[in-house]
Amino acid sequence: MNPDEIKSQEKPKEKSKIIFSAPPMRPGGVVTSSPAQSVEAEHANKEKTSDIRSYAYDAGSITKDRHLAPDQRTVAANRNFVEDSGTSAPLDAETRFKISKGLDLRNLSEPAIPSTTDPNPSSNIRSFAYDIKSEVTDNNISVAQMVLAENRQREESGTTAEDLQAKAASSGIMRSLLISIGAIAILGGAGMLVYTFIRTQPVPILSDTRAPEVLRVDKTSPILLPDASKRTMVQKIAEARGASAPIDTIVDLEPTLNIDGNKQILTSAEFIAIFDSNVPEELSRTIQDEFSFGIYAHDTNSIYMVLRADNYSNAYAGMLAWEKDMRNEIGQVFYDNSSLPLSTSGTIVNEFIDKIYWNQDTRAILGKDKEPVFLWSIVNRDTIVIASNDEILREILDRLTLSNIVR
Questions:
Q1: What strands, in cross-sheet order, belong to the sheet with 249-252?
Q2: 229 with 266: CB under 8 angstroms?
Q3: What is residue 348's DSSP assignment?
Q4: Cα gap 86→101, rounded to integer Å
Q5: Which of 211, 210, 209, 214 is nearest to 400 (CA)?
Q6: What are the beta bridge partners of residue 219?
Q7: To 10 degrees, what angle do helices 55-66 and 35-48 make?
Q8: Distance between CA atoms of 245 and 268, rounded to whole angstroms?
Q9: Which of 128, 151, 335, 394 lies at a CB distance of 3.0 to 4.6 Å from 373, suitable for a disulfide?
Q10: Per DSSP, what are the bridge partners of residue 294?
């Protein structure tokens, strides 16, 4: 049998026909598969891979064979997983959450949705994050859908981002304005309280003379000094001493500077300084500003001065130290050297000696008749009395005693 006969006797082999069954298409060209087809494909793959499946395998197969878009891989795999489970019960919150986020339902390492159950039922405090989680889990929507809905609602109401910024700016301005008004109101109220407090305080009544603070006098007759010279002072005192006054009256002369109509009552230190007095420091530190200087009308008009001291020891030591200068400084307005005796050598005797007048320890200079012409004494341990004679000392003691009884 020749080769041609053998070839003619052979039956031609039928070619195998491979029929591809195209899966149904969704509108828009997206390939879809029925649940039955998905189940058959799953069983086939299980047999080929010895029951070993993975999410990467499913996603790769779906993409390769069914030409799915990458963002639809997880959706398709999840749908197949749900269909494979064969349950018709509603999906729980965790499953819905993973589906909405595009997570693999079979991957147990994915974080579960946080529970929206309040761990403290008695707490009434809720936060914005809590409300967002509740909305996502209860209504099965995503955060992106919530944002889109908010933007859509803003567009429908005609509100733009510029409007929101303007509203926020106006709110900030209004807040600042309210804070400023509140601060002004508080400051105004505080000012009114201070003003009311000051107005309700008793206004001190200033006396026309300082003498009543130191000594009760019968009259005040200020001597006005056009300047602060010793000569002017001595002249004004001499004029006041020569004036007539009722018997047994004390007149406070209240030395006052009157320069260009500006009157200033002198303090004790200023008055003594006019006589170029060298007052010891221990005395100047203890005497107060208030003092009384004037005349006492009795047989003749005599001069007196009353000072207040803070410290008896310093006052006494200071007066003793001042004696040698006081008689030649301020002493000339209290007495006249013609009334003093002369020594055997013909010099004036004007030394202070210890004397007691009206039960008071006194330091005095005696005249020709052995009567004091200049003296000083500390009364009640805080009052220094300087006088021309003992009669005015007695009158001042009586008035100081009466003032203490009245108090």
A1: 219-220, 249-252, 287-297, 301-309, 383-387, 372-379, 360-366, 353-357
A2: no
A3: B
A4: 23
A5: 214
A6: 251
A7: 120
A8: 25
A9: 335
A10: 252, 304
Decide: 333 and 234 in contact? Cβ < 8 Å: yes
Amino acid at 148: L
Buried b (16+ CB within 10 A) or exposed e, 136-163: bbeeeeeeeeeeeeeeeeeeeeeeeeee
CA–CA distance, 186 with 188 (Å, rounded to integer): 5
Read off the tokens for 70.
């990458």
Taking the CB of residue 363, how many other CB atoms lie within 10 A of it?
A: 18
Question: Amino acid identity, residue 399?
Answer: R
The H or E element containing residue 296 is strand 287-297
DSSP state of 290: E
Rounded to 5°, angle at Cα 24 from 23 and 28: 120
Q: What is the pLDDT along the chain (407 residues), one digit of tens a residue?
A: 555 544 445 555 544 444 444 455 544 444 445 555 554 555 555 544 444 454 445 545 544 445 555 556 666 665 665 555 555 555 566 666 666 666 655 554 444 445 545 555 444 566 666 776 776 677 666 666 776 777 777 667 766 666 666 766 677 787 788 888 888 888 888 877 766 666 554 443 333 444 447 899 999 999 999 999 999 999 999 999 998 889 999 999 999 999 888 899 999 999 999 999 899 999 999 999 999 999 999 888 999 999 999 999 999 999 999 999 998 899 989 998 888 999 888 888 889 999 999 999 999 999 999 999 999 999 999 999 999 999 999 999 999 988 775 44
d(CA 92, CA 105): 12
Q: CA geometry: angle at 193 spanning 191 and 198, to 5°?
A: 95
Structure tokens at 66: 């069914």
pTM, two decimal places: 0.49
Counting every residue written for the chain, the total comes to 407
Helix (H) or strand (E) holding 189: helix 161-200
- Taking alpha carbons only, the member of 304, 281, 270, 267 closest to residue 388 is 304
